[in-house]
Amino acid sequence: MSSQKQPVKLLTTFGSPFAHRAEVALALKGVPYELVHEDLDNKSELLLRHNPISKMVPVLLHGDDDRAVCESLVIVEYVDEAFDGPPILPADPYDRAIARFWAHFVENKVLLIIPLH
Ligand SMILES: N[C@@H](CCC(=O)N[C@@H](CS)C(=O)NCC(=O)O)C(=O)O
């Protein structure tokens, strides 16, 4: 089966802006996916196995359950590269760098002041 057609699961939790970021990327690309809701007070073996470093959601599982992508901004870029559909990041390297700059700015300066789980 082509990797484009392999099933996609997104480990998420209610109200996570980081998981929403990954969902927006999947929606923009028109990729069907299954949401798997995590209880962050009782993390699943699936989450701990696929994200042993930070143990956070979102985690994107593509194909068999051993292919896991962690970190929402990494997931956005993976989804952009792995699936057909309209590009998310600009084609021009300079424009891509500017998009990444603002994504990191939001990550480090804006989201840090919002209390999250
Ligand atoms: N830098 C991470 C942040 C993800 C994050 O903060 N996820 C929260 C939910 S909104 C989480 O899983 N928290 C569980 C924990 O801290 O143990 C990303 O962009 O994916």
Tally of strands: 4
Strand order in the largest sheet: 2-1-3-4
- Uncertain runs: none
Helix content estimate: 40-55%
Q: What is the averaged pLDDT score?
A: 92
Shape: globular
Distance between the termini: 38 Å
Structural class: alpha+beta
Can you count the helices?
4
Fraction in beta strands: 5-15%
Ligand names: glutathione
Radius of gyration based on Cα positions: 14 Å
Topology as H/E string? Answer: EHEHEEHH
Largest sheet: 4 strands, mixed
GO cellular component, one term: cytosol
Function: Is involved in the conjugation of reduced glutathione to a wide number of exogenous and endogenous hydrophobic electrophiles.
Family: Belongs to the GST superfamily.
GO molecular function: glutathione transferase activity
